[in-house]
Design brief:
4-stranded mixed beta sheet; Immunoglobulin-like; rod-shaped; 4-stranded antiparallel beta sheet; mainly beta
Length: 401
């Protein structure tokens, strides 16, 4: 006696009909056919989850009578096969029709990725509710049998001339995607935050439309091998770059800092804002360092003698061995200042001291070793003896003791 398998009832996805004449199906078996509008393959699994067959969509694969699960692009549907009968299953399709060179993914209700495809290429799936994700932006998709669901994302772009990247964030400031400026990102309609160099702008993306986020370019000019920083109005550093390297920011007010000297800037969309620094250098013949201080006596920067420092234009003081001299920094120019040097020449290994007019010790050095100081009149002390010394800029003074 042959036991007949009772098929699952038709369900709007799969239906049953006699096998067509000429179907290549062994005797006693049935066939399963998955109808789809895309170029894909489906698989057939038995009740244990083991794959028993696979075939190109729209073709018939023979299977013994029984219950099966049909799989297409990760989506599944339960059905049956009967001897001499064709199980014909319909699918739907989703198409993310965008303009960018990117890929989208389809997820199930458990956010498990089922399949992916290039934008403008369709995916066939069994009817049901899915989530379609493009650059981590999501939209629900309810696929119907025999129907194509077309989804049109919009695009986001920051179109400026710098060699940098921007990021797209959601309302919870979670980064979704990033791209080089000038290269658009596809996202589904919604509200986003676009970030470049930690400056943020709100962006509203509409279906099928392109949204360009306004930004301006900042260039800080300088002649030294140094870096500048950009701060927000709260004093938080947003970005930094080498002098002459441009940075992009969304429109707004910022502060530019070079060697702890600052100037405010206003960034305007599509406009290049240029800031010109000046430079100062204190020359000297010894292996020593000088510092730049502001009017309050706060040290801003320091460098080896002969090495220039970039600063915002203004009046400063250069400090060398506790002696300050006034220096002026002009935009686009390098100001050069000369120190002189003192040497006490004598036998032995004692130390000599250099004092100012009030008798305050400024610096000490081992005999026969030079020390750099700004031009001026000093007193030199060795042991209990003192001598006056006048130092001229760019000159070396030797005291034979």
């Amino acid at each position: 006696m042959v036991t007949c398998h009772k098929a699952l009832p038709p369900d709007g996805v799969c239906s049953y009909e006699p096998l067509p004449a000429g179907a290549q199906v062994p005797a006693g078996q049935g066939g399963i056919q998955v109808l789809a509008s895309t170029d894909a393959y489906f698989a057939v699994r038995d009740t244990t989850g083991k794959q028993t067959a696979s075939e190109h969509v729209n073709a018939i694969t023979p299977v013994p009578p029984g219950d099966y699960q049909v799989v297409l692009n990760g989506s599944t549907h339960s059905t049956s096969a009967q001897s001499k009968m064709l199980t014909k299953c319909k699918t739907g399709a989703v198409l993310v029709n965008g303009k960018t060179d990117e890929y989208y993914v389809v997820l199930d209700s458990a956010t498990r990725q089922l399949a992916s495809a290039h934008v403008a290429s369709a995916l066939s799936l069994f009817p049901g509710s899915y989530t379609v994700r493009l650059n981590n932006s999501d939209v629900g998709a309810n696929l119907q049998a025999g129907a194509l669901l077309e989804l049109k994302p919009g695009t986001l772009n920051v179109d400026v001339g710098t060699d940098e990247y921007y990021a797209v964030l959601d309302g919870a400031t979670r980064q979704l995607a990033s791209s080089h400026v000038g290269r658009a990102l596809g996202v589904f309609a919604g509200s986003y935050l676009v970030r470049i160099n930690n400056s943020d702008a709100k962006a509203e993306v509409r279906t099928g439309e392109s949204t360009n986020v306004p930004a301006g370019t900042l260039v800080v000019h300088g002649s030294t091998d140094e870096y500048y920083a950009v701060m927000n109005n709260a004093g938080v550093q947003l970005a930094s770059a080498h002098l002459e390297k441009p940075l992009a920011f969304v429109p707004g007010t910022y502060n530019v800092k070079v060697n702890n000297t600052t100037t405010p800037v206003t960034m305007v969309s599509g406009v290049t804002t240029e800031v010109k620094t000046g430079a100062v250098v204190l020359q000297g013949s010894t292996d020593e360092y000088y510092a730049i201080i502001d009017s309050a006596g706060t040290q801003l920067a320091s460098a080896h003698l002969g090495r220039a420092l970039s600063l915002m234009p203004g009046a400063y003081r250069a400090k060398l061995n506790n002696i300050a001299m006034t220096v002026q920094v002009d935009a686009g120019h390098s100001g050069e200042y000369q120190s002189g040097s003192l040497t006490v020449r004598t036998a032995g290994s004692d130390y000599y001291a250099v004092l100012d007019a009030s008798g305050t010790q400024l610096v000490s050095k081992q005999v026969n070793q030079p020390v750099s100081v700004p031009a001026g009149k000093y007193s030199v002390r060795l042991g209990n003896n003192s001598r006056p010394a006048t130092v001229t800029a760019g000159q070396s003074v030797v005291l034979n003791w």
